[in-house]
Amino acid sequence: MQGLKRFPSDGFRAKTKAFVTDLKGLKNPAPGNIVSPPADVVKLVDTLS
């Protein structure tokens, strides 16, 4: 239990949670997410090729 005190636990947990949420967002992007304009990218690639 004492090893856990090395981390500022609340801040560390919050950061970890946010990081995991970001990773999940990359895998399953929300419609408004910046990471997910695949349709636009596909259109652009089609236009260029």
Task: Please sum up the structure shown.
The protein has helices at residues 9-27, 38-48. The chain contains two helices and no strands. It has one domain (2-48).
Describe the structure.
With 49 residues, the protein is mainly alpha-helical. It has one domain. 61% of the residues lie in helices and 0% in strands. It is built from two helices and no strands. The chain has helices at 9-27, 38-48. The radius of gyration is 18 Å and the shape is rod-shaped.
Defining key terms:
rod-shaped; single chain; 49 residues; 2 helices; mainly alpha
Query: What is the global morphology?
Result: rod-shaped
Alpha-beta classification: mainly alpha
Instruction: State the end-to-end distance.
Output: 59 Å
The amount of helix comes to 55-70%
The overall pLDDT average reads 65
Beta-strand percentage?
Answer: under 5%
Q: Can you tell me the number of structural domains?
A: 1
The radius of gyration computed from the alpha-carbon positions, rounded to a whole number of angstroms, is 18 Å
Q: Count the DSSP helices.
A: 2
Strand runs, count: 0
* Largest β sheet strand count, sense and barrel closure: none
Low-confidence stretches: none
SSE arrangement, N to C: HH
